[in-house]
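Duplicate of #3305? Posting structure anyway:
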């Protein structure tokens, strides 16, 4: 399912106009993004949690040439599925 399919499903299930469903989905994702950027952990009970993991820089090597390469520090989003979601998928 992609974002447009999610919007259509929400509009159909909630019997609301497509534009309203699109606003709800956009607000949800915007709020999720903003919370993660602020350094907060986002937990949706029964589904899972999102957080940002920070990785330090390190010295790596180019596998083709063998030359040393400095890998810069980075921040990446991380999702961990909740127990209820895991149980649902495995039942």
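Output from current build:
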């Amino acid at each position: 399912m992609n974002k447009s399919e999610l919007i259509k499903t929400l509009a159909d299930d909630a019997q609301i106009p497509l534009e309203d469903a699109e606003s709800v989905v956009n607000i949800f994702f915007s709020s999720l993004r903003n919370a993660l950027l602020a350094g907060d952990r986002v937990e949706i009970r029964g589904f899972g949690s999102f957080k940002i993991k920070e990785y330090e820089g390190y010295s790596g090597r180019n596998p083709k040439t063998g030359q040393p390469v400095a890998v810069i520090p980075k921040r990446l989003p991380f999702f961990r599925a909740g127990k209820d979601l895991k149980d649902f998928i495995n039942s």
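Confirmed duplicate; merging threads. The chain has a mean pLDDT of 96. The longest strand covers residues 48-55.
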